[in-house]
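Lecture notes, unit on protein representations.

Consider one protein chain, 99 amino acids long.
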Amino acid sequence: MKHFLLIYTYAPDYLEKRAAHRAVHLEKARASAARDELQLGGAVPSDEPPFGLLLFKSETPAVAEEFAKSDPYVTQGVVTGWCVREWITVVGKDALTQV
């Protein structure tokens, strides 16, 4: 297993845009967490630009990529861009790489 970060770039007015899609987004996130794919997720508030981080555990980046492609935040313009990056975790009780 590996860790992957799904990194969302939010629209400047994401707080207003997300309201209509938040329930479906959270339902999708909770379902992924129940399958032990999504480990943590949330927004990183900042002045410019705000972004979201979602941590997935899977064999390949496909789980995170498929999540993004069907997430209403992405399809409805709350998120203006996203990428998936492998994160090699080495310290902590949930680290997946032993060194």
